[in-house]
Amino acid sequence: MTENEIRNLLEQVRAGQVSAQAALERLRRLPFEDLGFAKIDHHRSLRQGFAEVIFAPGKRPEQVVSIVRRMSRNRHNILITRGDRRLYRSVKRAARTARFHELSGAISIRKDKRIVGKGLILVVSAGTADIPVAEEALVTAEVFGNRVESVYDVGVAGLHRLMRHHEKLLEARVIVCVAGMEGALPSVVGGLVGVPVIAVPTSVGYGASLRGVAALLGMLNSCASNVAVVNIDNGFGAGCLASVINRL
Amino acid sequence: MTENEIRNLLEQVRAGQVSAQAALERLRRLPFEDLGFAKIDHHRSLRQGFAEVIFAPGKRPEQVVSIVRRMSRNRHNILITRGDRRLYRSVKRAARTARFHELSGAISIRKDKRIVGKGLILVVSAGTADIPVAEEALVTAEVFGNRVESVYDVGVAGLHRLMRHHEKLLEARVIVCVAGMEGALPSVVGGLVGVPVIAVPTSVGYGASLRGVAALLGMLNSCASNVAVVNIDNGFGAGCLASVINRL
Amino acid sequence: MTENEIRNLLEQVRAGQVSAQAALERLRRLPFEDLGFAKIDHHRSLRQGFAEVIFAPGKRPEQVVSIVRRMSRNRHNILITRGDRRLYRSVKRAARTARFHELSGAISIRKDKRIVGKGLILVVSAGTADIPVAEEALVTAEVFGNRVESVYDVGVAGLHRLMRHHEKLLEARVIVCVAGMEGALPSVVGGLVGVPVIAVPTSVGYGASLRGVAALLGMLNSCASNVAVVNIDNGFGAGCLASVINRL
Amino acid sequence: MTENEIRNLLEQVRAGQVSAQAALERLRRLPFEDLGFAKIDHHRSLRQGFAEVIFAPGKRPEQVVSIVRRMSRNRHNILITRGDRRLYRSVKRAARTARFHELSGAISIRKDKRIVGKGLILVVSAGTADIPVAEEALVTAEVFGNRVESVYDVGVAGLHRLMRHHEKLLEARVIVCVAGMEGALPSVVGGLVGVPVIAVPTSVGYGASLRGVAALLGMLNSCASNVAVVNIDNGFGAGCLASVINRL
Amino acid sequence: MTENEIRNLLEQVRAGQVSAQAALERLRRLPFEDLGFAKIDHHRSLRQGFAEVIFAPGKRPEQVVSIVRRMSRNRHNILITRGDRRLYRSVKRAARTARFHELSGAISIRKDKRIVGKGLILVVSAGTADIPVAEEALVTAEVFGNRVESVYDVGVAGLHRLMRHHEKLLEARVIVCVAGMEGALPSVVGGLVGVPVIAVPTSVGYGASLRGVAALLGMLNSCASNVAVVNIDNGFGAGCLASVINRL
Amino acid sequence: MTENEIRNLLEQVRAGQVSAQAALERLRRLPFEDLGFAKIDHHRSLRQGFAEVIFAPGKRPEQVVSIVRRMSRNRHNILITRGDRRLYRSVKRAARTARFHELSGAISIRKDKRIVGKGLILVVSAGTADIPVAEEALVTAEVFGNRVESVYDVGVAGLHRLMRHHEKLLEARVIVCVAGMEGALPSVVGGLVGVPVIAVPTSVGYGASLRGVAALLGMLNSCASNVAVVNIDNGFGAGCLASVINRL
Amino acid sequence: MTENEIRNLLEQVRAGQVSAQAALERLRRLPFEDLGFAKIDHHRSLRQGFAEVIFAPGKRPEQVVSIVRRMSRNRHNILITRGDRRLYRSVKRAARTARFHELSGAISIRKDKRIVGKGLILVVSAGTADIPVAEEALVTAEVFGNRVESVYDVGVAGLHRLMRHHEKLLEARVIVCVAGMEGALPSVVGGLVGVPVIAVPTSVGYGASLRGVAALLGMLNSCASNVAVVNIDNGFGAGCLASVINRL
Amino acid sequence: MTENEIRNLLEQVRAGQVSAQAALERLRRLPFEDLGFAKIDHHRSLRQGFAEVIFAPGKRPEQVVSIVRRMSRNRHNILITRGDRRLYRSVKRAARTARFHELSGAISIRKDKRIVGKGLILVVSAGTADIPVAEEALVTAEVFGNRVESVYDVGVAGLHRLMRHHEKLLEARVIVCVAGMEGALPSVVGGLVGVPVIAVPTSVGYGASLRGVAALLGMLNSCASNVAVVNIDNGFGAGCLASVINRL
Known about the structure:
The structure is a homooctamer.
Chain A: H1 3-14, H2 20-28, H3 36-47, E1 51-55, H4 61-71, E2 77-81, H5 85-94, E3 99-101, E4 106-109, E5 120-125, H6 131-143, E6 147-151, H7 159-163, H8 166-171, E7 174-179, H9 185-192, E8 197-201, H10 213-220, E9 227-229, H11 235-246
Parallel strand pairs in A: 1-2, 5-6, 5-7, 7-8, 8-9
Antiparallel strand pairs in A: 2-4, 3-4
Helix pairs in contact in A: 4-5, 6-11
């Protein structure tokens, strides 16, 4: 039952064709979303901005391409996460402007290149092995309409490398901070800036890294109080949340 | 906005005092629950049957008593979980029929003694130290209007004790099975009967019992396929669910 | 020693050919099951209803087929869990009516299509990646003689999708609720209905999902009190237990 | 070496009293902070806004009072976290305007009541036992100069209670979402709004709640992509981060 | 139905007062234990040898004394575990020969001082803090009728202390090996002897000892292949099992 | 320095060619093992009985064959654990009497078929998937010179199957009890017999079985006090320890 | 058998009173330590330097005092760890020069004030709550004869505070680095210096700090390769090891 | 801004071309590293001695070779960790003196064969399966300019094998101790020597070894106080730290 149908129902009440009691009965049986939730859904699509997202794992290339084709009818950007070069080739045939981001496996299709985020989103990562997750965050924020830059390979055991980028840190409006192993980077970065830091632990490491749990725990215990944490390896989530904040 | 107000609104539409469009606008802004969710809440109270529940920890005696007084105006049974003798004395003054269940700390006030459950709920427990949790399940099921019996101290290392109660096991319609340590009882009981077994791990034990996690894991891995598990020490939850099943 | 042999022994006592003392000695040495346990076993087969189950992993196709052939002599339904298309082809040759359920790998052979469950079993799942586990629960409940329906892809971050199926939720007699990641769906569903909810955590997710442990813990801590939990990815167990409850 | 000393050194260079080489040597040996880090520290105090924070546990009342006295010379607000009524009485004597927040043990001294946050910070919590943590977040955000409101006791097993506050949820610029047990609330709230949601797991619960770890894992696995998480019971951190975001 | 009753039934069959069929019916309904399980129970008391055991925690002194009084009618030894000096005083009044073992809190009453174990049970422990658990094992084995000796304070970081007792190690028929912290002692002892070593991890330690889990894991991974492990702090269980082995 | 050399040294002292002091000096510098440890090693080989053991994983077939060839010069039995059919073929060429045990991958070469264990070692296992581990225990005990029998597929959810073997359980001198999932079998078996039960958890199961940790914890918390536990899947260790006990 | 006895034995051989063979027999039966291990023990006391250590918990004051009295006969320093003011008063009466270190509860008695460590041991700690553990390390290193200094309250979220002490960091020969919460300090410090860093995680924190496990894991995963870790809160161990290194 | 530029600036001040104030402003904006951090970096390269390290996993052979080529211009040794034979062949073509260490996969290129470590680094390992990690430590220490020896296969269940190397243990200046399973070796070795012991847990084992966590916990709880621990399988880190200590 769409908005139109409800209006029709009300017109019938007005016209005396339907009693108030009968209308009440029908309204009560309305699927939930027809009134209130529709509004939510609307906000939901507002929130997603102008990007649609496809999580590639578990989907066959032809399924992904078919979703891309259907999405392509509107003017939204499209982001495919955790794909590979083979999937990229299939997508490329359906969407000429698709770009492949090799380290993260992300595929982006940007139709709408407007910048809607108010400031710079900076993606900082600790080791070279963390770059795939950092790239996922970066591409996500980009596809969602933000100005994004990155500072890679600035682990805390080599502070001078991080400090070389101090001005850039101070320029950012939101920082995404990606680190595996001991996950100490967000605490150090959080102490250097006055903006929100979204920490992304990665599963980089071995042994006592417990597939990222060590980094995760480290970040949750950060002594900097402008840090919040997302799931291990969740570059996409960090990019999303950074976009939501940057649009405020 | 209650049902009456909606009916009034519709009557106003019908009377031509409000346009369909304006009514649509007002309906759209309705608090959610006014239509659909009210119905849910109704079902909710139906589900709770004729018992109200108060979780005592963190509440002062006078707070509990004041809730009991307010609840006492309708004819529902009242269950207070995890109380103590001191709380019981306070409650007793407000509700003469209150009974104290010493091992579990439960306090029950039964105004409505009808039996609504269709069969017998049997509470089985492994060791003497598991009895407080078992008693909580038993009192809960009783207050919710069920015929309840118990078989205690029938751990799996002494099968003959359990077997002495074989007829009783076969008589039950729902079984709540409470055990700490290795948590093996639900598997054995589940293999002996053809009805649902709700397993409650307890924090009884020490060392590698990991405060009930060993029993919990054991029950989740049960090789009997009529077993489901609730939280550690959650006698209340098991009694609740047993009631819900027994009313089907 | 079968029932007949015991009767013969008693006849010999009666005929004075065996003394009471000697009979007592022989009875005392009886294998356990000959008296009491036989009865248990009988109940056991009653419980299993008219379905036999084969867990495929670790068995070679020819082994499975041979078990299927032996089982086929009676009129029970047969369920093979966690198989694959190759196994299906082998089974198909032995049992023409075998059906393959691709996502879960289940293979079902329904000879007896009577419905013995009293109401509707509804299988609800959160994300598309949870569907294989949900399908296993669904096929299990179906093979065990129940009317089953499913509502998929209704995660809690998009409540309106769940709410669209509110009537269906209220119609069910037992609900199986399948979810990975944060495992929040059973709490929400449990709050909307007055019937038992069997929660199945799935290993869907990554990082801090800890292969389903996050969802498992979430479900065990559910604030809805009509929820019980089975093992991670245990669609079969949930379908079984739902059948046991639905036959009450 | 202060800024003045550096200026003096440069003046001496200018006056020819010190060679460029000698000045270079002395500059090279400067303690780090004299140049660059001072700038950081400056930003740091900017970030803290106009509030100073004292973590009470492990400090004796007279120590806290003495810190409060020293801080009171400037015009900053003061927040003392995790205190108690006894500490409050001591502080009250030193700072007449001190207020005690009983559930969380926070003590706030607001000299500067300007609102610097741009929108509403809404603190939402699931159960009554989560309120102390929620209150800590609320008081923190308030002391840091934000307009703050709260919605308590809206657990996901009773959706209608949450939905009653839907308009309020949509009004907020930042949401702090506090929940123990299964920690499902942030996913549901995150799906209803388009702003950042800071999730705070609490140690509320027992058994498989593992002192808040279950809620923590649930929140990290949230299927809503505008959610980030802070440490268990860390209401202060959530209030801080919400302030940092709300000032953007 | 006791053995006598079954004999009577058989006599009635013999006398023609009961038909074979009727007797069969009655036998089929026998409580399980009346035939087979009685035998088990008999073996069970045989196994326990001549000692009865009372686990003190959770029992009031008068309860323990009353159990002791009842047990005292036969000639079995009595062991009370995890008691304290106050309980001891109460027990002492009921049983003059009661002895208190201060470190473990065990109370032993030995009426039957025969030695039934075939060889020496040696209890070896690593640090002074492990002695309470070692003492519990020692007293248990003693009460169960074994010759027992102890070697304390021989941690693996001071091999020479252990080696001083090499002859004693070689003399033992069963060794109980008690250690906290890294739990390495059983591996070293196991490598020095050719008899079974029962390893008991203790909760001695702090931090990464995880309340005995570190020692437990160490012992389970022992590179000596004559080592098996019981629960953390389970001196009683180790003493029991050592007795069972020593009686073979 | 061998025994001969020490004797020579002492003869030199006796002959006056070396002073007591100089001899003392040389003795003090002796490598440890020359006196005491040699003795230990002797005991060690005594302990190993007449079997040598090769752990196959990580060794190339030619390495294993070469070790087998070297070992074959004495009359000891040889046991190769965790091999495969390909390795077996290589070994077979070097040792005609080698036998392959397919489920466990064990390869046994029995030259000495004497039985040195005093009684029966019984290997009991819960599910069909536990049989490989059970077989490893069985073959190990056999190669070490014991009479061994097995009872498989007697999980606790089908007690009647276990009870059918009650006589056999009572006949055993040592029982090895192998189970995955909830690991409840050792508690039940331990309660039925009066001999030592060595419990072997297996990694059989999924989800909350945590690769055998659930079964391990269950067994460590066994309420039967004649049970001790070895590492997950450690059939070899259980067979070894059973042999050590059976030789007492 | 002491060294003298061995010499006597050899003299008897020399005098022809004992045959070489008989002497060999007696030597072979020597307790282990009489030859080789004595040497080890000697090295052991060398290693401990001139300090004896008493771990106070679980000892009564009079026991500690009595040990102190006995130790006082030689010239070694004495360190009592984890004591309290009450114990200190007792010790003070027995040893006039005893000093109490309030935060850590250490009591030190320094008779020998020589410095044997070759360089400076620097103890660095992150938060004020970490100081008790840091103090334990500091006092330990001091008592063991080292020059020790400390730098406290230099958490990684305020780098400028750490950097103020950069010269001191570069002066140290061994660094002990104490931190709770995310445990990031050793990585940062390790990256700034070229000497060994001994990392001590503390149990400071709450929630996801898991009583120091988060800090422990962080330190084990340090990206600086001159860092090794000791147990949580093990200030004593760190001070010991630092002394061992500093004496090289 | 390089040192030269700062000198130029100071010369301009001296020449009166730039005011002190303007110079101060420019100095204040200097990138951090230009003054202080450069010094750190210098120390850093000093620390790394004359070896450069490449972590091979995740890098393609041609990338590694290109880094080797670039590094080869100076006279530093080069260490490639966790490579394989195929990578070795590529590297060999670029660097004729490259050597392959098969068990660990390390590739070393030693141009500078000077020994800078002051004493012997001894690498001790428990089982044959631990040798790859031990070899990584050994090659690392060698490439970093140390005299290194190894003692392999000396598990604690066969003390006599360890004792055979007692003299060698006493000769070492630093010991790296590698062990999986129960990780007991460092405690035993630590008790025998007076020098630092760096413990490396390995992931060798199965079941309750939890991929090295059991060994890690064991080592952290070592009762020897000259032991510190690095990450599981981190042979490289141990070799590094041993070098840092050995150069003191």
